[in-house]
Amino acid sequence: MEKFPLIINGFSTKTSETFDVKNPSTGEIVGYAPKANLEQLDYAVKAANDAFKGWSDKPDADRAAACHAIGAALEENAEDLARLLTQEQGKPLNGMGSRFELGGASAWAHFTAELELPVEVLQDNNEGKVEMHRKPIGVVGSITPWNWPVMIAIWHIIPAIRAGNTVVVKPSPYTPLSTIRMVEIMNQILPAGVVNLIAGGDELGAAMSSHEGIGKIIFTGSCATGKKVMADASETLKRLTLELGGNDAGIVLPDVDPKQIAEGLFWGAFINGGQTCAALKRLYVHDDIYDEVCKELTAFAGNMKMGDGLDEENVLGPIQNKMQYDKVSGMVDDAIENGGRVLMGGKPNGVGNGKGYYYPITLIADVDHGVKLVDEEQFGPALPIIRYSDIDEVVERANDNPNGLGGSVWSNDIEAAKKIALKMECGTVWINKHGMIQPNAPFGGVKGSGIGVEFGEEGLKEYTNIQVVMS
Ligand code: NAD
Fold first, then answer.
1. Across residues 145-149, what is the average pLDDT?
2. Where in the chain is the domain with CATH 3.40.309.10?
3. Does domain 6-244+449-470 correspond to CATH entry 3.30.70.100?
4. Please, are residues 339 and 366 in contact by the beta-carbon 8 Å criterion?
5. 191 CA distance to ligand 1 middle (Å)
6. pTM of the model
7. Model confidence at 350, in pLDDT bands (50, 70, 90)?
8. Where in the chain is the domain with CATH 3.40.605.10?
9. Is the pLDDT score of 181 beyond 90?
């Protein structure tokens, strides 16, 4: 079984201590991840600081070319990376799984390569000239979660280096291997020390958040951890982008054709088995079409194949880890105990031959606020379907949640849907779809879902400090 390395200053370094990374589909070991200590974190931060001057002084076009080269290298290595990702994360190769994630990663790299932040002239008259420059911050610490590990690492690393920063990335201990392989590939393109990788336990993330040699943290993960990152970062006054949890509401208006929207609703909620920050997590359906939407959604979901991700016929995999499996199954049990009506799923059914953390697609009708499955983020394959009859009241209920990542409105009347969209308290609202992010549209949460945005020019700006020059 392969031992994976840390990557510091361009070198792949094996550690004396390792930890097992297991396939959530089978429980088998996929590989041994390196377990870095705090001294190795210091080396990585030093390497990134040492590389900063050379990298930030380079012509902008060189950094753009390097980001394009990384995009191309991801395409060349896509199948190998996708297979490793499937084995450690559980998501299937097919459908919106590992190949889709690799495709997204290279698309984001190419798109971000093309972005520019030119000097803005704010004033140029008899009284003087005022220029606004965007300068890189220094070393960026990237902390990633286990649900979309490759794509999220790219969302962090590429804009950071595009803007002239250097990086220390720490993947989730559940899914570090594909990120390690990807950073090895990046290091064949980039100068030594521009992108470094450490892996190990959660304590490394905490140490990064308070590290004096790191100027910014880009963190994607849970709300609870995001708050700790913010507290730990306060002493050194780090720049922060926090992409945290969501509990996205979808509101279905009575004018839709239930059969037509069933596929969009399904994938909005169950992309990556629901283990997606901006998945549809609470579905509000108008009383007039409630039963029909439940029926069509159940019919569509019944045709989706779940099983080992390496098997080409599957489009859904297991839950990634035991902690999340227990959380989802506890929330479903609680919803059923509190009157929820099971349309499908609801208890483990031995899919995947009873091995692995398989939980079936679960649809629970006739639930409302006050049960955990509605009030909290489930982050798994279980969707509560809530009945409503008054549109103003449903918007209030959708907003009655500490999170505010995404939301959606489903209607044939796009203008009416947009009016409702603007009343929703979240960073993105989709009309007749859910969770479809794209590299040119800023993405981020309001309220408890985070601070700042990623993607596009607005996202790139978050990797810079403003400097004003007045002459
Ligand atoms: P998590 O918060 O448990 O872990 C995320 C990362 O933080 C891991 O690398 C972990 O090792 C590290 N970490 C743990 N403790 C830390 C600490 N004290 N200080 C610094 N780092 C620490 O999250 P997860 O379970 O891996 O991911 C699931 C969550 O992430 C969900 O809530 C999901 O909604 C959210 N998420 C959000 C987005 C977004 O863009 N908004 C995207 C993906 C996932």
1. 98
2. 248-438
3. no
4. yes
5. 29
6. 0.97
7. low
8. 6-244+449-470
9. yes
Report how far residue 82's alpha carbon sits from residue 101's, in angstroms, rounded to the nearest whole number: 8
Quick one: pLDDT band at residue 354, thresholds 50, 70, 90?
A: low
Q: How confident is the model at residue 349 (pLDDT cuts 50, 70, 90)?
A: confident
Q: How many Å lie between the centroid of ligand 1 and the Cα of residue 123? A: 42
- Report pLDDT digits (tens) over 105-141: 999 999 999 999 999 999 999 999 999 999 999 999 9
SS3 80: helix
Residue 315 gets the label, from left (phi > 0), alpha (psi -120 to 50) or beta, of alpha
Q: How many whole angstroms separate alpha carbon 108 and alpha carbon 459?
A: 12
Q: Could you give the 3-state DSSP secondary structure of residue 141? A: strand
Lowest mean pLDDT among 40-54, 352-366, 418-432, 441-455: 352-366
| Contact status, residue 35 vs residue 43, Cβ threshold 8 Å | no
Q: By alpha-carbon position, which residue is closest to atom 30 of ligand 1?
A: 221
CA of 303 from ligand 1 middle (Å) equals 32
Q: Name the residue with tokens 């932040």.
A: 117
Question: Tokens 């990086």, residue?
Answer: 167
Dihedrals phi, psi of 13, to nearest 5 degrees: -120, 120
> Does ligand 1 come within 6 angstroms of the Cβ of 222?
yes
Q: Alpha-carbon distance 89 to 24, whole Å?
A: 7
Place of tokens 């993947």: 171
| Residue range 48-78, pLDDT digits in tens | 999 999 999 999 999 999 999 999 999 999 9
Residue 353 has pLDDT above 60, yes or no: no
- Assigned token pair, 418: 């947009």
Average pLDDT, the chain: 97
For residue 449, the surrounding DSSP H or E stretch is none
Atom of ligand 1 nearest to the CA of 146: 26
Task: Judge if the beta carbon of residue 229 lies within 6 A of ligand 1.
Answer: yes
Question: Of the listed 67, 88, 223, 277, which one is catalytic?
Answer: 277
Task: State how far the alpha carbon of 326 is from the alpha carbons of 91, 185, 266, 357, 410, in Å.
Answer: 18, 36, 23, 9, 32
Architecture of the domain whose range is 248-438:
3-Layer(aba) Sandwich (3.40)
Main-chain dihedrals φ then ψ at residue 430, nearest 5 degrees: -105, 145
Mark whether 67 is an active-site residue.
no
